[in-house]
Amino acid sequence: xxxxQPVSTPSITEFAPAKINxxxxxxxxxxxxxxxxDSQVAFADFGDRLYFQSASNICLKLRGPFAExxxxxxxxxVIKAARLLAQTTGISExxxxxxxxxxxxxxxxxxxxxxxxxxxxxxxxxxxKLALPLPELANIGAKLGSDIPACVYASDLRMRGRGEQIxxxxxxxxxxxxLVNPGIQLSTGAVFAKFDQLAPEKTDARKQNSLTNxxxxxxxxxxxxxxxxxxxxxxxxxxxxxxxxxxxAFFADRKSAEQVAKDLLQxxxxxxxxxxxxxxxxxx
Length: 284
Prior knowledge:
By secondary structure, the protein is an alpha+beta fold. The protein folds into 2 domains: 12-168, Ribosomal Protein S5, domain 2 (2-Layer Sandwich), CATH 3.30.230; 175-278, 2-Layer Sandwich (Alpha-Beta Plaits), CATH 3.30.70. The protein has 9 helices and 10 strands. Strands 1, 2, 3, 4, 5 and 6 form a 6-stranded mixed beta sheet that branches. Strands 8-9-7-10 form a 4-stranded antiparallel beta sheet, with helices on one face. Strand 3 (58-63), helix 1 (77-89) and strand 4 (96-101) form a beta-alpha-beta unit. Helix 1 (77-89) packs parallel to helix 2 and helix 2 crosses helix 3 (134-142). The two termini are 32 Å apart.
């Protein structure tokens, strides 16, 4: 969509951090078609960044290493979030020029689209001077996606139900890790569909992430990646993030994580590798 010249006002910036499911336990599909989840969530110091300026219409501009992977039309969650917020609050002629700096890989299990939508709700809450509290923004976001309420808060929390039941947790000590994606986009819907097909004993409830086996069925490279990470002496077994295909391994300190990332990229130059600090994030 065409972006008209923005009104000459300072822009508002919002950080959209990567969402990390430290644990993700998924139940059987319910009558409403959704799966109950129970997940402890933290956020990384790495993510996308969004810039908001007043304008006469709603438009989205993209930049960054993964910009070409993101649609710019009405189907984009950022645009949907902007329009839903305007509709909910009675803004008849909403306008904003949104610039999304896309640094997270798309469909990778770390909540990129949901984090961007949540950042849009927070950013427009400021730009449009709505003064809505975070719980109200989370309720609006829940209409667009199950992960968006957690991403609105972007702090240590537990999410249950479809994701709309949020329990804020005391800040946990931060951890240093390495996020790695083997260059695969994986549909969340496809992973849940495969999860439904697997016998309960094959989903392995003992895993930190109930979706791991289902994702590996669709993309065996995830199993290979986990094996590689576990050979690097992480602090605990490597785990898959969300519905995949990104995986996470924790290490003792930043220097160790950066060395691991450097070594992985030398061996696998097509992989996406990012050292991160996880925890102690907050949008306040």
